[in-house]
Amino acid sequence: MCGIVGAVAQRDVAEILVEGLRRLEYRGYDSAGVAIVDSNSELTRLRRLGKVQELVDATEQQEVAGGTGIAHTRWATHGEPSEANAHPHMSSDISVVHNGIIENHEELRQLLKDRGYSFESQTDTEVIAHLVEWEMREATSLVEALQKTVKQLEGAYGTVVMDRKDPSRLVVARSGSPIVIGYGVGENFLASDQLALLNVTRRFSYLEEGDVAEITRRKVTIFDLSGNPVEREVVESNAEHDAGDKGKYRHFMQKEIFEQPTALINTVEGRLTKDAVITESIGVNAAEILEKVEHVQIVACGTSYNAGMVARYWFESLAGVSCDVEIASEFRYRKFVTRPNSLLITLSQSGETADTLAALRLAKEKGYMSAMTICNVAGSSLVRESDFAFMTRAGAEIGVASTKAFTTQLSALLMLVTALGKERQYVDAVKEAEIVKALHSLPDQINSALSYDKQIEALAEDFADKHHTLFLGRGEFYPIAMEASLKLKEISYIHAEAYAAGELKHGPLALIDADMPVVVVAPNNELLEKLKSNIEEVRARGGLLYVFADESAGFEADESMKIITMPNVSDITAPIYYTIPMQLLSYYVALIKGTDVDQPRNLAKSVTVE
Ligand code: GLU
User: Fold this and answer.
1) What is the tens place of the pLDDT at every residue in 298-334?
2) pTM
3) Is 404 known to be catalytic?
4) Minimal CA–CA distance to 9: which of 1, 17, 21?
5) Catalytic residue among 404, 422, 487, 605, which?
6) Which of 11, 37, 65, 303 lies 20 to 30 Å (CA to CA) from residue 321?
């Protein structure tokens, strides 16, 4: 779930390890720890509840020498957040860090207690340390002990083991939680995400499911699930060096909101001509597959689910293909019917979302025609396990609350919808040219939407002392309202709900009073008149309205209604465009409330547990 960093080097690695953890802070965590061994087998373990900075301070107060070490940020799943539960966990000479969950930890704990081990934490992780310690008694090497250990583990994990008596190596296993190996000169590294290591190396290989690897200063040996030595391709990363820096921005979220014009340019690059979508850019044989698609099933969680909900309107209206969207944690445990010629699409920023990954694996068994993912992280599990991966290329997204991943997902989805409609002869050349023109215009339009920054900052004052907010939209702007409400909840902790505006009179209208701001997304489309009636329903009951409206929509502000006038943009890309002021609104409300914008309480970035 959270962060792992490891190093085997000649130089002292404490700084490298904690810097790596710092770069992974964006994932959300509750505690951090490090264990380092020097060449005389002297081990130092430091753990702190709270921020990585506490650990940095601790490593500065106490000189930590040693070239081999493991470090971890924990997002508690078993046992409260506390120093005692923070990783690394130890069993005699063995130290362990672990991401994920060991599902059979209770029975293993009992077995290990029967063998005489005593437990110092409430975590599931500690069983790994004791199991390795036990296996080491018979095994000829640490890697063999880990191989024997992982055979006994059920669940999803990435885990790294260090033996104090032999500081020349680390061993690591991957099963359901990503691990990347970083290659240096006379030193090697590993991490749960390459971002952690970009300041020490650019050369990486990615462990595959079931892999176990041994890392020394000069050598990396990888074994597959059956224990056979395997080669995993080493690739040069071109990820941005400074992805982990805020630059001139106060928060990563703010930086990422402002990066959207560039992110959107990167998403469409090489995929569009002046007036057409290049179907092959979706994948080898994409045209052949898309031609046969009769149904689309989207599976996603959180913000990605909201992107899927917008796309549902597009798939049906622009490509003439029926589309269902479902939350991954529901889909995976439901007895569903697979439609003929159905294309499964998973959406995920990280590509490691546990529920979405499980849904993909299940769908593959259930006979979907093809499985595609729209994802932001190359080499992630969803990317590797899908038939097609359409990368969003938004760049590293660090703020827990997703922004640029959402808008780039939407533009990727719109390209896919267009290609699908074209291959099925539903979208003609004129329509295609109209969509492509709208996509090309979007980065500039978003730049202009970002210039509403100050106006929205002022508006945010009205929300900061409220306990609730209602967001309304119709058609594909209903999921934009859903995303706006999710954003506000996530970072400002204000309770927010989104309704399809036509649904108001069926219940939520009862909530309307002067303490309930109502935000309306009001582009000038064929539903505008209906929306205006819904707005009147709120006004008549004394509600306070904030309407983000197209300049030609004909609204007039008064004491019960503030109008934020937006320039006219294409109907097709308007959902992406209207997302921007919603993001800015949440951001500024959170700023006024003084919440932890980039790492909201209780949340993690990449949700690799169920
Ligand atoms: N399940 C482990 C624990 O609660 C690891 C959690 C994580 O992925 O950080 O300690």
Assistant:
1) 999 999 999 999 999 999 999 999 999 999 999 999 9
2) 0.74
3) no
4) 17
5) 605
6) 303
